[in-house]
Amino acid sequence: MVTHSLCRLAWIVGCCAVAVATCESFAAERPPFYQGKTLNFVINFAAGGPTDIESRIFARHLSRHIPGNPSVTIQNMGGGGGLTAVNYLGEVAKPDGYTAAYFTGSLFQHQIKDPALRVDIAKFGFITGVHGVTVSYIRADVPPGIKKPADFVKAQKFRAAGLGVSSSKDVRFRLSFDLLGLKYDYVTGYNNSSDARLAVQRNEAQYHDETLPSYRTQVEPQMVKTGMVMPVYAQSGKYVQHQHDANGSHAAKITSRSDRDSEKSFRFSVERSGLHSRGHRHHAFSTAPGSWRSRRTVVQTSLTGIA
After folding, report:
1. Is 180 exposed, middle or buried (0-12, 13-18, 19+ CB in 10 A)?
2. What is the topology classification, in CATH, of domain 134-235+238-276?
């Protein structure tokens, strides 16, 4: 009887071993989920703005870090102050792991319960957040003339270009202006910072702010160095240091608060004029509600390769 029981136990253990070996064999033969697939990135602002530039930088490097090396496509979906794409992800996109999103400002709109936001962002598959630095600038010809950042508090009435009443960008600069007692007209509804920047270039508006990718590539070479605008402050624990080059052109140096030497030499710093802001701006990588956690984790893990 004992011998028979031991034989049966050995047979069961043997079957389990074969089953495990078979499963491991299948797992080894199974190709990565994203192999031969396409991962679509939805961006909640139109092409040419900082959100678009930042997301394309990530998309350019993301594929080679994901097992299977999927193709990555970009889908710009501007409108509604960035909420058109957010609602699309929650209401239309399939939770199949093939659609991800790079959003700016949506978490803020969720916090203030914007009625235009029809979906619950808390149900989205959060992948990661991206920290950014925002630089504010104003036309140098705003009366009585903006020759250094501290002159911003002396600015007479000007028009500030925004993206939407509930946009975190708009709320931040309006709060700052109101606290400083500035006189300004608020013009909002631009599809992205690219359109708002163009309005400043045309003098239809005089103020806007952008994160570093578009500031460095568009604003600084085309508007700051030509003397059209003056950078006045940066958000996220940074300073804007006003400088002149050998030709007398304006320049701005973004420095960390930990850079004590630069901090001491800051004679025209925004901090001295009381304009320094330590706000934060985050961009969120997300997937549609109900997306498989395992597929989201694959993309999440791949970001460590980029970082």
Report:
1. middle
2. D-Maltodextrin-Binding Protein; domain 2 (3.40.190)
Structure tokens given for 298: 């694959």
Q: Read off the pTM.
A: 0.63
Residues 6+ apart with CB under 8 A from 296: 97, 125, 127, 287
Among residues of the chain, what percentage have pLDDT more than 90? 31
Kindly report the CATH number that applies to the domain delimited by 38-127+282-306: 3.40.190.150
> pLDDT tens digits for 34-83?
999 999 989 988 888 788 888 888 888 888 888 899 999 999 998 888 88
Calculate Rg over the CA atoms of the chain.
26
Nearest C-alpha neighbor of 84 from the set 100, 56, 106: 106
Q: Comparing C-alpha atoms, which of 118, 92, 129 is closest to residue 290?
A: 92
Tokens coding 140: 């140098």
Domain segments of the chain: what residues?
A: 38-127+282-306, 134-235+238-276
Q: How many CB atoms lie within 10 A of CB 154?
A: 13
- Cβ-based neighbours of 302, under 8 Å, separated by 6 or more: 62, 65, 66, 67
